[in-house]
Amino acid sequence: MHVNESAENYLETILILSQKLPVVRSVDIATELGYKKSSVSIAMRNLREKHHITVTDSGFITLTDSGRAIAEEIYERHQLLSCWLTALGVDPQVAADDACKIEHVISRESFEAIKRHVKVS
């Protein structure tokens, strides 16, 4: 269930927004990410075509099971890596920025090893 980094970012953003807002719309995603609404619209069409989201006639965006699984995996990586880097003394903003980069390229094997190490430490 591999998707590109951009799709992972959109799915993670939808997940985060869905925890804060009663409904998620393209405009909310554009505002959160600082992207143009037209760019978000194209991305939402691609995610819908890949069955990672559904969009109602009112424009409300919901993650499908596959979209939620991807989003939760990326969000878990982001949270753990960001917290771990901060605990190592990295500035919180730098840690969050670095975690956002690392979360997309780290293998599942390496992430699981870090997760085990962090939980033991």
Low-confidence stretches: none
- Number of helical elements: 6
**What is the CA–CA distance across the termini?**
31 Å
Percent strand: under 5%
Name its key features.
single chain; 121 residues; mainly alpha; Arc Repressor Mutant, subunit A; Diphtheria Toxin Repressor, domain 2; 2 domains; 6 helices
Task: Write up this protein.
With 121 residues, the chain is mainly α. The chain folds into two domains: 5-69, Winged helix-like DNA-binding domain superfamily/Winged helix DNA-binding domain (Arc Repressor Mutant, subunit A, Orthogonal Bundle); 73-120, Iron dependent repressor, metal binding and dimerisation domain (Diphtheria Toxin Repressor, domain 2). Helix content is 72%, strand content 5%. The chain contains six helices and two strands. The chain has helices at 5-20, 26-33, 37-49, 65-87, 92-105, 108-120; strands at 53-55, 61-63. Strands 1-2 form a two-stranded antiparallel ribbon. β1 (53-55) and β2 (61-63) form a beta hairpin. α1 (5-20) crosses α2 and α2 (26-33) crosses α3. The chain is elongated and about 50 Å long.
